[in-house]
Each structure stands twice: as C-alpha cells, then as structure tokens.
Amino acid sequence: DVKVTQSSRYLVKRTGEKVFLECVQDMDHENMFWYRQDPGLGLRLIYFSYDVKMKEKGDIPEGYSVSREKKERFSLILESASTNQTSMYLCASSLSSGGRQPQHFGDGTRLSIL
Amino acid sequence: GNSVTQMEGPVTLSEEAFLTINCTYTATGYPSLFWYVQYPGEGLQLLLKATKADDKGSNKGFEATYRKETTSFHLEKGSVQVSDSAVYFCALTLIQTGANNLFFGTGTRLTVIP
Question: What's the rounded Cα separation, in Å, for the pair A113 and A73?
C-alpha cells in the first residue's frame, strides 16, 4: 500500500513564525501536492510538483512556498504565518500517467496560528 | 473551466437506508472521476474511480457510474452502516501530461444513526 506520511498531526505556531510542514511518500511517485481544507470550501490546491526541484502554483499559493529536493519529500513553507492560515493541510502523491491514477493522501496536519 | 458540484449536506440516514449523493461535473477535456472518503480525524482515502464513460466504479458496497451524457457520477449504496459516517468528496482529473491535478467538490457529510 502507498504510504504518505505527514510529520505532524497537530501543530500550534505563532503569528510571524516560519513554519515547515513535511510530507514523505514511499512509492516513488513523481507527483506530489499540498492542499488546505477549510469548512465549506472543500480542498484547495496550494502547490504541486511533478518532479524533483520542479514546482507549480495551485489555486491559492499566496503566503506559501514549497521545496522538493528529493523525490520522496515535499515540504510546505509558511514564510510568515498569519491567523488566516489556520487550517487542515493535506499532502498527496500520485504516479504520473496522464491523469488516470488517483492521488494518495496523508492523514493531514491541523495547523493553528495564534 | 473544470469543476465539480456535489449535493449539499449534511445527510442523515438511519442504518440500512439507501444512500445517493449526487455529483455533476464540467470539464474542458475527457476526465477521470473519483469518489474519496474522509473519516473523522483522517486524510482522504480513495473509495472508487471510473476512467471512461459507462464505467462503474465499486468498493465496500458503494457504486458510481460515469455518465457522460448527463455529466454525472452519483454515489450510491444500498444499505448504509454506522461505520459509513464520513465526508464524501467527488473529484475529477483530466487526462493530460504533467501532474494530474484533482478538482474537488466541497464534500458531503454523511451521518448514519443506529
């Protein structure tokens, strides 16, 4: 089975801090994704990556950056955390095969910015 | 553009009742369709998928048929259990090169009461 592991289930940080969310997958997937999930808004794509050192903006990239130095690891960075970034963050990965493959998700990180 | 519309929740059913959660989509290309389920406190899990018109995806007693003529992918289960209580997301991805971005509906919360 595919395993997508997010480093923290719960995280509390302060406004203005630099925050790192880590995600690791063990199935050699080319694609990795970061979403945030908010009540009534569903899942929104922040950034994705289709290869090492490659990244693309999703729908809501403002206030975030990402890093993919190794194929199995995709990090989401909040450069200067703000209270409106309090949310559930979900990481996902998938094979690159023209769209027929599903994405596999981690258990999520519930981030609170105080 | 590409989007998914699913029925508003929450949905509350008695155990053994019949479940339908409606999902319709718009897509600029030829999509693959998915249903994901999110149990409390967890990430999203793939429930079922269909990659071409008239395909029926099925898993754990749930079914959905890819209807190109009505652009729909409704989720059904003949007899729900308390353990089916979760949030259900309909999603599509397009067959294309590069990362297979998912477009999600906003989710439908299902509660099954004994």
Answer: 24
Q: What is the mean pLDDT of residues A9-15?
A: 96
Residues of B whose CB is below 8 A from A21? none
Q: Which amino acid is at A109?
A: T
How many CA atoms lie less than 13 Å away from B87 in the CB half-sphere? 19
Angle A43-A45-A46 from CA coordinates, rounded to 5° = 130
CB contact under 8 Å between B101 and A101, yes or no, is no
User: What is the residue-averaged pLDDT of chain B?
Assistant: 91
pLDDT digits (tens, 9 = 90+) for B33-92: 999 999 988 889 999 999 899 999 999 999 999 999 999 999 999 999 999 999 999 999
Inspect the interface and report whether the beta carbons of A105 and B44 lie closer than 8 Å. yes
Tens-place pLDDT, residues A86-114: 999 999 998 876 567 788 999 999 999 99
Under an 8 Å CB criterion, which residues of B touch A? 31-32, 34, 36, 41-46, 49, 51, 89, 93-102, 104-107
Tell me whether strands A64-70 and A73-78 are parallel, antiparallel or unpaired: antiparallel
Q: A96 CB near a chain B CB, below 8 Å?
A: yes
3-state secondary structure of B82: helix
Task: Answer whether B102 sits within 8 Å of A41, measured CB to CB.
Answer: no
Task: Tell me whether residues A58 and B101 touch, CB distance under 8 A.
Answer: yes
